[in-house]
Amino acid sequence: MNTFSAKFIAKKSENLSQWYTDVIAQAELADYAPVRGCMVYRPYGYAIWERVKTLLDRRIKATGAEEAYYPLFIPRSFLQREASHVKGFSPEVAWVTHGGGEELSEPLAVRPTSEAIIGVMWSKWIQSYRDLPIMHNQWCNVVRWEKATRPFLRTLEFLWQEGHTAHRTEQEAREETMKILEVYRSFASDDLLLSVLSGKKSESQKFAGAVETYTIEAVMPDGKALQSGTSHFLGQNFSTAFNIKFLDDDDIEKFVWTTSWGVSHRIVGGLIMSHGDDSGIILPPKVAPIQVVIVPIIFDENKSQILETAEKLVKILQRGEYQEEKLRVKADLDETTKPGFKFAHWELKGVPIRLELGPKDVANSQLIAVPRDTRQKVPLKFDLSSATFEFDSLYRLLDEYAGRLKLRAKEELEKRITETDNYNDLKEFISSGRGLVLAGWDGLTETEDMVKAETSATIRVLKNSVSSDSVKCIYSGRPAKYLAYWGLAY
RNA sequence: CGGGGUGUGGCGCAGUCCGGUUAAGCGCGCCUGGUUUGGGACCAGGAGGUCGCAGGUUCAAAUCCUGCCACCCCGACCA
């Protein structure tokens, strides 16, 4: 296998942070905006986000949620109604105090999340058990005034989807919470080809206002966890705070049970870091804005023949369908750059398959297919006169490529998790950046706080609860209530 | 928000310590022309900078002083 590393980006294995900012700039995904902590999506970066949206939205709609849109501004008094919610979010809310040249009588929060304004609306709309469940999802931007920011992973303004549901019973709301967690897990696994841990958050890590928070956590190459999606069971915290009541069929007025859940553009950052290599980013076929790029190898004597063939092949290939969507194909017909430049360029941008078309290939009615990860060359036959192409082989290459990415992600995740019952081991694993540690926890927040103070590690996600006395808490030595994944986080 | 670092054509940097004729430089990129083209081409010519911003010191400031802003790294906080 040939290996090439890009000239203008840091080596991923040597300096992940630098590599990350380098590829974002060089692959033209995003750029820093003139406003602190804000980024501009460049078209290629936005195209990736659009793919993420399309794929996740499909899964969300399949659960029965409808798309809606609520306003950007939330009156201060609304935000303040749920005590722990306001406590959790107030340090990072941006406020609008003036409008139209005059001071507002009540400041407006730029939404950090929309539970509050949705709660106010739903208290109007929900009257009867027949109005339930109500399941809304919106794709929007939110603002959280973070101190330290990084493109995609943490920006002041970020893009996400937030789903909100209200249910007649506690059980139904709990089921919804878990259903969405599984939507997120399978989306990460099957669409983004990421391996994630999923499960419950500890008390100290849960969403402000939630009864329980569930998460999918990815583990980055530097061993730090990336919270990539959360699903919250909100109990009746918001329905009591916002007075969302319904009359049940037993003629008794009851508060609804609510959930909320979100995935942000942060997951694009996780995608970049997880799959990329020294040549740039590597995109899963479903997410790639361009799945196949044709690079003609042009010589003077047969230039027009090659270019014409390339153009015809794009038209043929665009008729292809892969995984129930039109194949996304591009031909790089620029005559001012050499093939080697184009190879490097499209590898940087993570295009799954490159098709090389040179004079020798035209003579043989074939293209040379080169997958982004292995770069192992495979000839694919075509016939211009009958406008046919060896689609099955191309699809197989894409399938195999996706399979390799997924397998590698799975192996990497396993490699970055160590089970131990020795606290010194935990300290050692965390400080050396080897990843997450799976160990017992006595369920006490004090224990979590002490471990955090000593190691900076927090409980990223609870694997499962423990009933037997044989498992001890890694810190206190008391019988463990949970097996927990401990680690540093983004 | 703490600790450290950096801001000089589009990008990456030298020059700053020790102010002045090294009186704005280099590499890449960009433009024009030509030769090239199976892994980031070469030659020739050319365009492009009030040195992050605002004050101050001085005969003189990219260089010294003060304040501010932005970005990067390491922590703390958070999706």
What does this structure look like?
- With 490 residues, the protein is an alpha+beta fold.
- It has 14 helices and 26 strands.
- The strands form seven sheets. It has a seven-stranded mixed beta sheet.
- It starts with 15 loop residues before the first helix and ends with a strand.
- The model has no long low-confidence stretch (mean pLDDT 93).
Q: Give a quick account of the main beta sheet: strands, pairing sense, barrel closure.
A: 7 strands, mixed
Mean pLDDT, all residues? 93
- Spatially, the strands of the biggest sheet line up as 3-7-8-14-11-10-9
| Oligomeric form | single chain
Helicity range of the residues?
25-40%
Distance between the termini: 33 Å
What is the count of β-strands?
26
- Which runs of at least 5 residues are low in confidence (pLDDT < 50)? none
Give the number of helices: 14
Secondary structural class: alpha+beta
What best-fitting shape do the alpha-carbon axes yield? globular
β-sheet strand percentage: 25-35%
